[in-house]
Amino acid sequence: MNFEELNLSAPILKALSRCGHHKPTPIQAEAIPKALAGHDLIASAQTGTGKTAAFVLPALERLCAERPDRKPGLRVLVLTPTRELAGQIAQATRAYSRYLKVHSVAIYGGMPFGDQIRALAQKPEMVIATPGRLIDHIWRGRIDLSQMEMFVLDEADRMLDMGFIDDVEFVCEAVPEDCQKLLFAATMGADTARLAGKLMKNPQRVEISPGQMTHESIEQRLHLADSLQHKNRMLRSLCRDEGMTRAIIFSATKRDADSLARELTAEGYSAAALHGDMTQSARNRTVMNLRQGRIRLLVATDVAARGLDITGISHVINFDLPRSAEDYVNRIGRTGRAGKSGVAISFASRADLAYLDVIESYLGQNLAVQVIPGLEPKTPISGGNGARRKISAAPNRGGRGRRVYSEGRPARRPAGDGGKAPEGSRFRAKESGTRKADNGAAKPATRLARRPSRPKNVSA
Ligand code: AMP
Question: Where does 218-429 sit in CATH, by number?
Answer without folding.
Answer: 3.40.50.300
